[in-house]
Amino acid sequence: MFERIKGWVKGVGRALGLIDNINKLREHKNINADELEYDRIDFNKRLYGGYVQEWHDLEYQGTIEKIKRKQRTLNMPKVLAKKLAKLTFNEGVQISIGEDTGKEAQWELIKDVVTSNRFIREFQRYLEYMFAMGGVAVEVYLDGDEPKIAYATADAFFALSQDTEQVDEAVIANQEKMDGRYYTLLKWHEWGEFENGHNYKITNELYESGNKDVIGDKVRLSKLYDDMEPISLFTLEHPLFVYFKPNEANNKNITSPLGISVFENCQDTIRMLDVMYDFWWNEFRLGKRRVAVPEYLVKTQFNAQGKPYVTFDDSEELFVALNSAEMDDMEMKDLTVDLRVGQIVESIQSLLDVLAMQVGLSPGTFTFQSGGVKTATQVVAENSETFQTRSSHLSIIEDGLRDLIMSIYEVATLDMQVSDPLERSDISIDFNDGVFDDNQSRLNYWRDGYKAGLVPREKAIERAFNLSSEEAREWAEQLQADTQQNVFSRQQAAAQAELGIER
Which InterPro entries does the record associate with it (predicted)? Predict the structure, then answer.
């Protein structure tokens, strides 16, 4: 029992930044939380945040004293995660029910939940965290009678039982601060045989501490949540959470149900990019004009604390003192060296191309210019690395979204008798491939398909102009009417010309 608690504490403590100071924890299934796994998640989270102490805190000996400073960073982990999130999911994504299913009423229930929770906007933000840390959980719960959607990053998610493909039982942790106290809510999602024939149980536990780094002691739920039940039982077919992860094999732990950060295997490249970027900045600083002056013009003195300082100038990079015997007494020489900016920029660009290759993006995706990284916005060919990587990630995301929609549907219909329930195959998801072409390319593509007899007219209009099915149908009807009117006008003009009637 002690080892089980110890293992649990290590897992939760690692994810939340907490230490093993919990006093009570009832016997429970062992959480499969590999400490090394959460070490990696924590490290990648810090990389994504743009600061890793062991990388970016620099200390070296200067001419007079030790210099301590923070290394400048390109923060490419943030750039990578944001780029992939935008490629895979954007405001143009459409989730709907197939037109021929006849389940519009079922869809309205889901649509209300998706819209009221601003799911499209929030999910893109959490996908960025998913690519950065290796996973994100999306949870469906009831707030009174209203279905709600919540999110948990990989460092607050702990599998209870799973295989390497799917997690169906888990603990989700959430920490809040109120009145100077720290509260950690643990939600246990479990399958089993429970009273009254229920098969799914959610157990809520609340812990309180005066220190954000300590999980503390278990307290009443009512201390923070007025209407939250300790245990809730359901009869379900789908878990009330879905764990999304990048479509990357976890080569650090092949049995782990958790995903892996998209930049886990390119940390050396990221570190070297930061080194070169810092070098690029320093090149301008150290490339300031340097002047050699006679030694007698430069005097070192000491302040009240005993620290030396130079009376000629307080910046060593602007002058160099030489013994007057080595130069004419009053002569001053310019020692400024040429900047190596061009070579440094070439090195940074080479590293950016290596990084793009490592995460599955096309060469030239990132360009270093004007002191920052620009991302490519040009048309992306369907056979490119970027397109294939996007398609790979979307296969996992689409599958997870279908699971999530089914979970939302189950929660929304808990107290309803549904004669024709929703099926996974009823769900339609359009990820808007418009991010991979421009308007003219898209128009040409669908026009050619229509001319070749491969695409219905309404579908070609819909996809070429990003319209809804109803709008495309209206456009097609209007075009048909315009065509008929034009034909009639031409026929009328021809008849008038034949009869010699002036128009």
Answer: Phage_portal_A118-type (IPR006432), Portal_protein_SPP1_Gp6-like (IPR021145)
Residues 6+ apart with CB under 8 A from 20: 6, 9, 10, 13
- Helix, coil or strand: residue 432: coil
Residue in the block written with tokens 């209009």: 461
- The tokens for 54 are 């062991």
Q: Which residues contact 122 (CB under 8 A, 6 or more apart)?
A: 149, 151
Query: Is 310 in a helix, a strand, or coil?
Result: strand
Checking DSSP bridges between strand 291-294 and strand 319-322, what pairing results, if any? parallel
Q: Which regions of 120-276 does DSSP assign to beta strands (E)?
A: 136-143, 146-153, 157-162, 167-178, 181-191, 200-209, 217-219, 231-234, 241-244
Length of the chain: 503
Q: Encoding tokens for residue 57? A: 């805190």
pLDDT-derived band at 2, boundaries 50, 70, 90: very low
- How many Å apart are CA 15 and CA 135, to the nearest integer? 13
Q: Are 144 and 174 in contact (CB under 8 A)?
A: no
Neighbours of 300 (CB within 10 A): 11
**Torsion angle, alpha carbons of 416, 428, 404, 11, to 10:** 170
Q: What is d(CA 22, CA 376) in angstroms, rounded to the nearest whole number?
A: 49
Burial call 467-500: b when 16+ CB within 10 Å, e when fewer: eeeeebeebbeeeeeeeeeeeeeeeeeeeeeeee
Contact call for residues 80 and 389 (beta carbons, < 8 A): no
| pLDDT surpassing 70 at residue 317 | no
**For residues 334 and 287, is the Cβ–Cβ distance under 8 A?**
no
- pLDDT tens, 340-368? 778 888 899 999 999 999 999 988 888 88
**Cα 151 → chain centroid:** 13
Q: What's the rounded mean pLDDT across residues 152-167? A: 81
Convert the pLDDT of each residue in 117-158 to its tens digit. Answer: 999 999 999 999 999 999 999 999 988 888 999 999 998 898
- Distance between CA 366 and CA 372 in Å, rounded? 10
Which band of pLDDT confidence, cut at 50, 70 and 90, is reported for residue 481? confident
- Residue in this structure with the two tokens 């109120």, named with its chain if needed: 178
pLDDT in the model for residue 202: 94
Answer yes or no: are the C-beta atoms of 261 and 39 closer than 8 Å: no
pLDDT tier, 490 (very low <50, low <70, confident <90, very high otherwise) = low
Contact (CB, 8 A) for 135 and 259: yes
For residue 139, which of 355, 493, 445, 404 has the smallest C-alpha distance? 404
Q: Three-state SS for 427?
A: strand
341, 154, 174, 180: which is closest to 257 by C-alpha? 154
List strand residue ranges (DSSP E) for 35-180, in order: 57-61, 66-70, 94-97, 136-143, 146-153, 157-162, 167-178
Contact present, 176 and 216 (Cβ < 8 Å) = no
Strand partners, 364: none
